[in-house]
Specification:
It is built from eight helices and nine strands. The termini are far apart. It is 35% helix and 14% strand. Strand 8, helix 6 and strand 9 form a beta-alpha-beta unit. By secondary structure, the chain is an alpha/beta fold. The protein is globular. It has one domain: TIM Barrel (Alpha-Beta Barrel), CATH 3.20.20.140. The strands form two sheets. Strands 3-5-6-7-8-9 form a six-stranded parallel sheet. A three-stranded parallel sheet has the order 1-2-4, with helices on one face.
C-alpha cells in the first residue's frame, strides 16, 4: 500500500571532509541573515547534520546598507555563542569574521583597518553582483601589502567574471583565494552560477567552500543538497583548505 505522506529523508554528512564552514550569516539582526537566536540555532543544527563540525560566522560589512562595526559584531557573536552552547548544538563556533564589500566605503576602511579575520589571517571580500567597482585590484593589493590574505567570496555568482576570460586568471595571479558556495553546486543561484562553480573547482581555482547560510531556507537547501551524489563525488575528488581553519 502506498503512503499518502511524502517520505522524509534525513540529511547526510557529505560535508564532513570540509570540517569548517567559513562563510555564513548567523549573527542575528546585523544583516540580511538570521533574524533571531532560534533561527541561528536551527541553521546550526542543520549544518551539524550535513557534516560540519566548526563554523566561522561572517556578517556583511557593506556601505551604506550594513554599516556594522567590528566591536559590536564581536559582542553579538559572543552572545550567540553562549546561547548555542546552552542549546547543546553539536557544532563549535570557532570565530567571527566578516564579508567586506569592496564599495565606496571600503577605501576609507583601509586607512585604519580593523578587519575581522578568518583563521587569524584571511579577510573575506565580495564584489557587487552587478559590476565590479573601479580600483578593486589596487585595494586588494593594498590589503595584501598590509599582511592580509584575501579570499573572494562566491566568484561564480558574478556574471561579469567569465571563467574562460582573463579576469579570473588575473585575480588568481594576484594571489587571491576563491571561495565557492556549496549551494551553487545544486543550482541554488541558477544554472550559470552552477556551471561556473563546477568549472572553477575542476580547474583547481577554489581553495575554500562556504555555505553562505542566511536563514532556514538556506538550511533546508543544504539538507536537500546533502543527498546529491554528484556533489558528493565532486567534493571527494578535490581538496580544500576549510579543514585548516
Amino acid at each position: 500500500m502506498f503512503s499518502l505522506f511524502k517520505k522524509k529523508y534525513e540529511p547526510r554528512p557529505i560535508f564532513a571532509a570540509l570540517g569548517t564552514d567559513m562563510h555564513c550569516h548567523l549573527v542575528p539582526k546585523v544583516d540580511d541573515g538570521s533574524k533571531c537566536d532560534e533561527e541561528s540555532i536551527e541553521c546550526l543544527q542543520t549544518l551539524s547534520a550535513v557534516g560540519y563540525k566548526r563554523v566561522i560566522i561572517t556578517p556583511h560589512f557593506q556601505h551604506p546598507r550594513f554599516p556594522n562595526q567590528e566591536d559590536d559584531i564581536t559582542r553579538r557573536y559572543e552572545d550567540l555563542k553562549k546561547h548555542v552552547n546552552e542549546a547543546g548544538v553539536d557544532i563549535e563556533l570557532v570565530g567571527i569574521g566578516g564579508e567586506y564589500r569592496i564599495d565606496s566605503g571600503f577605501a576609507p576602511r583601509l586607512e585604519n583597518p580593523r578587519f575581522l579575520q578568518i583563521g587569524g589571517k584571511y579577510v573575506l571580500v565580495e564584489f557587487s553582483l552587478h559590476q565590479q567597482m573601479m580600483g578593486c585590484d589596487e585595494m586588494i593589493f593594498d590589503m595584501q601589502m598590509k599582511g592580509y590574505e584575501v579570499i573572494l567570496a562566491h566568484p561564480e555568482r558574478y556574471p561579469y567574471l567569465n571563467v574562460n576570460g582573463l579576469r579570473m586568471e588575473q585575480l588568481k595571479n594576484q594571489g587571491v583565494f576563491f571561495q565557492t558556495n556549496v549551494l551553487s553546486l545544486g543550482g541554488f543561484y541558477g544554472e550559470e552560477a552552477k556551471h561556473r562553480a563546477v568549472e572553477m573547482i575542476e580547474r583547481g581555482w577554489v581553495e575554500f567552500m562556504g555555505t553562505d547560510t542566511h536563514n532556514t531556507m538556506y538550511a533546508q537547501a543544504l539538507s536537500d543538497l546533502s543527498r546529491n551524489k554528484k556533489v558528493e563525488k565532486l567534493l571527494e575528488k578535490h581538496q580544500f583548505l576549510n579543514n585548516t581553519l
